[in-house]
Amino acid sequence: MAYISNTDADRKVMLDKIGVENLEDIFSSIPRKLRLNRSLDIPALSEMELLTEIEQLANRNQSDLACFAGGGVYDHFIPAAVGAVISRPEFVTAYTPYQAEVSQGTLQVIYEFQTHICRLTGMDVANASMYDGATAAAEAVVISTGVTRRNKVVVSETVNPLYREVVQTYLSSRGVELVSVPMKDGVTDLDRLRDIVDDKTACVLLGQPNFFGLLEEADQISELTHDVGGKMIMAVDPIAQMLLRTPAKAGADIVVGEGQPLGIPLSFGGPLLGFFAARKKLIRNLPGRIVARTKDIDGKTGFVLTLQTREQHIRRQKATSNICTNQALCAATAAVYVSLMGKTGLKKVALLSAEKAQKTADEIFALEGYKPYFKGPFLREFAVRTPRPASEIISALTERGLLAGADAGRWYSSMKDCLIVALTEKRTDAEISALAKGLSELR
C-alpha cells in the first residue's frame, strides 16, 4: 500500500466535510468506558524513516527456515507460472463479481475452482470459496443444525484445534450443544462416539487425515452418523486427497478444508482459502455464492451467479450466512495451480510428500529418545514423542534454520512432549538429515 501522509490542513478539510469539529467528535457515539484511555505512542516519522522502520521489523522474520510444520498450512513449491497468471490486473484488482454480467473472467475462474474442488472431493457442488478451512467447518456445522432441525453437534478431539475453536465461537450464541469425542491412540474413539451419537445429533465433524496426521475410520463414523439421521462433515487436506478415497465414497455429506496447499504461499499466516463442497440436495443451504455455466440467447457460453445465499443478496431471515464471501484472488490462485499441475502433477506432489514423511519418520524414530507418539497409518504428517518439551526443541532448532514442527502441547495440555512433523515435496534429503541431527543433539 502506498504511503500517503495527511497534513493538518488535510485533516481539517475532511472534518469539515463530514461536519464535525475534531477527531474526538467522530467517536462520540462510543461510550468513554469502551475507549482506549491512553496514547497509542505512535512516533512521528517521515516516509523515509517509516520505510526503514518497517524494513527492520520485516527483517526479523525468518523466511529461510526449512519448514517441517503443518497443521493445515504447508510449505509446497509454487511454480512461477501461477504468480504470472494471477498477477494480471483482471484478477488482482477484482474482489468479487457483484456485477456478474461484466465479470465473465472472474466468474469463469471461480467456476473452474468449484469444478476442481468437486473433483478432489467427489462431491456434487462446491461454492465460490470461504475465508479459510476453520470458518468453512463452522459454516458446515451451522448448516447441519438447520437442515436436520437438531441442536447437538459432535466434533472429534482429533480435528484441528483451530477449527474446533472457531466452531465453538460460531455456536456460542445459538443454543447448540457442542460435544467433543475423545481420542484413543490418536484417532477418534469409536466406542465413545457410539455412546455420544443419538437421534438428537445434527452432525459429526471429522478430520481426514486428522490433526496428528493419522487416518480415521471414516466409513464407520459415517455409517454411525447416518444411522441416527445426522450429517457427516469431513475436513480434508486437498493434497492428501490424491492418495485417498474421496470423501464422497466415504459417505460425507459436506466436505470442507483449507485450500492454502493449492498454490498459496505461507506468508506468515495468511491469507488463506476455505473450500466447501456438498451433496446436491444441500445446494440451497450452501453459504456464500455458487457460479454456474449457461448459454445466452445467442447460444454463447456464459457464466452467472446462480445462488447467492447471504443477506446482501436475499432477505436476511432466509440467508444461510452473514459473514461469508469468496476469496476471489486466492480461489483464482488455487484454480491456476491445480490446472497447471493436473491430476498427474498433484498426485506426484502427494506421493513425494508421503515418501519423504516416511523417510523422515524412519530417521527420527531411529534416534535414542524419540518414539512414535501414536501407532497407525499416516501420509505426510506424524507425531513424535520427544524426550523434552516440544516447544524447547522448536525454539532451539529455529536458531539452526529448521522449523522442526508444531507443538501439540499448545492445544493439548497433556501432550507437551508431542512434536507434529509435516513433509512436503520441497524438503530435501539434506534438510531431513539436518533435522534428525538436530534432534539427536537435543536429547
Care to describe what's here?
- By secondary structure, this protein is of the alpha/beta class.
- It has two domains: 110 residues, Alpha-Beta Complex (Aspartate Aminotransferase, domain 1); 258 residues, Aspartate Aminotransferase, domain 2.
- The protein is built from 13 helices and 17 strands.
- Strands 2-10-9-8-7-3-4 form a seven-stranded mixed β-sheet, with helices on both faces. The chain has a four-stranded antiparallel β-sheet with strand order 13-14-17-16, covered by helices on one side. It has a two-stranded parallel ribbon with strand order 1-15.
- β5 and β6 form a beta hairpin.
- α4 packs antiparallel against α11.
- 43% of the residues are buried.
How are the secondary structure elements laid out?
Blueprint: H1 8-18, H2 23-26, H3 47-58, E1 66-67, H4 80-86, H5 89-92, H6 104-121, E2 125-126, H7 133-148, E3 152-156, H8 161-171, E4 177-181, E5 183-184, E6 187-188, H9 190-196, E7 201-208, H10 218-227, E8 231-236, E9 254-258, E10 274-278, E11 289-295, E12 301-308, H11 328-365, E13 371-372, E14 381-385, H12 390-398, E15 402-403, E16 406-407, E17 418-422, H13 429-440
Parallel strand pairs: 1-15, 3-4, 3-7, 7-8, 8-9
Antiparallel strand pairs: 2-10, 5-6, 9-10, 11-12, 13-14, 14-17, 16-17
